[in-house]
Amino acid sequence: MKRWVVWLGIVLGSLSLSLCALAQWQSVAPGIDYQEFSASGPNNVFVTRMDRDAPDCTIDSCIAQGKLVSGREPVSAMANRYEDVIGYWGQTWGTRYDVVAAINGDGFSYETDLPTGGQIISGWYAKRFNEFSGAGFVWTLNRQVFLAECVNHRSDKNIVAYPATGQDQHINGINTARGADELIIYTPQYDSYTPAASGGAEVLVELSRPMLIMPLSNYVSGTVREIRPNQGTTPLPFDCVVLSADGAAAAKLLANVGLGSEVRISQEITHYQADCSTPGAGDLTKTYSCIGYMSQVFLRDGIVYDDDPPSPREPRTAVAYNNDYIFFVVCDGRSGISVGMTYPELGNFCLNTLAATHGINQDGGGSSTLWVDGEVKNNPSDGSERYVANGLMMIRVQDRSQSSAFAAEDEVEAPAGATLRLGPGTNYGVRATVASGAEGTIVADALNGVLAKGQYWWKCDFGTETGWVAQSSLSQVATAAPRWEAYR
After folding, report:
1. The CATH classification of domain 155-266, taken from the options 2.40.50, 2.60.120, 2.60.40, 3.40.50
2. Gap between the Cα atoms of 360 and 294, Å rounded
3. How far is it, in rounded angstroms, from Cα 394 to Cα 48?
4. pLDDT tens profile 354-384
5. What is the distance between the terminal CA atoms of the chain, rounded to a whole angstrom?
6. Within 13 Å and on the Cβ side, how many CA atoms surround 249?
7. pTM assigned to the model
8. Domain ranges of the chain
9. DSSP-assigned beta bridge partners for residue 249
10. Residue ranges in the chain whose pLDDT is less than 70
């Protein structure tokens, strides 16, 4: 009897501790929780977790300033930048983001401000991963999670195809400088416009969906909207890409496209394990978000990295996961109250405290930042947030909302003038401005009236320029009464 009482006490004590630990998680949004931990070292560790099965939650990456060429910014600024923008989660444009948590991402160059590795954001392959380097944490449109440690691109599987002629050509790069006889694709994440160019050719293609990783057996389809020989500085609307070609590649491009013709873009990333020869588990097809990583997968299949030579104790940012949750982890460092972690210490924390089975290291040091629900939770070792190149976000997805104030072909006026943007939202670049009293027409588009950044947006043609205009800047033009009405 005594043994039974002791056993019962142990069970109840364990249950009590489990419930206490469970109660320490604070819900910051349905499906997303936050908790602070004190770990050996001493160390202060800050963690958010997202339920992998929460239907309205997703992971996306973010780019400083919203454009690859615009420079770095703090994690908090990126989180605010992407709040209430439209995304492609659910495989439809127009769902809106409620950004709940964000961390810093990949390392970066102080000379170019570009992230060190590649990036996929909202389904767009925006920056190519370096050949035979790691792609890092992968989150797909079908909610699959894995770590891609070594990737490369085969030229015969990354092409632009022209169904009307049966021809295709190799993609030489994405959002990078165009070289001699090369075909480069520019996406809306590059900038508002393509680089200036005096030769070659550029072709604007409107896409049916983001430029996803899609293999040859499938593709992303688009329609040619503009053909611009010997021109650069082409606008980049939110749902378009620009095929920019030089020399022989330009000649082939121009020979295979016409206004209204179909273009198909197929891309494939071959994924290996860390040895760059053994095929990796997981398929990057339809990846929704992915960024490069720094140095180390510290936890794989429940096994902690064997640290040889020993890594230093530093501030750390990491992404970890198990079958139930994805974790954003930030450990403070370089202070007396929190010294930072080695890779094995980080791995053991994620394994033993969070019950994670996999973990990967992001940029650390002064960059390490965790932003949750409007505030930075940790204490960055620089004394304030560092300006970084990109990051990852946990997001609650809001349903698409649309206004019915106007309809396609309606004539509208901008009484006080208006700003025409490259997409529905103030996060997109300016295409043009129109003067007070300018009149235009609503252009047919499935997203007309969509809510983003606190306003409803309409695609309008003002004669010389077409772009997205906030509903608050528009009024309907009163049509004259039919002649017979005047004599009633």
Report:
1. 2.60.120
2. 8
3. 9
4. 999 999 999 999 999 999 999 999 999 999 9
5. 102
6. 24
7. 0.93
8. 28-152+270-398, 155-266, 411-476
9. none
10. 1-23, 479-488
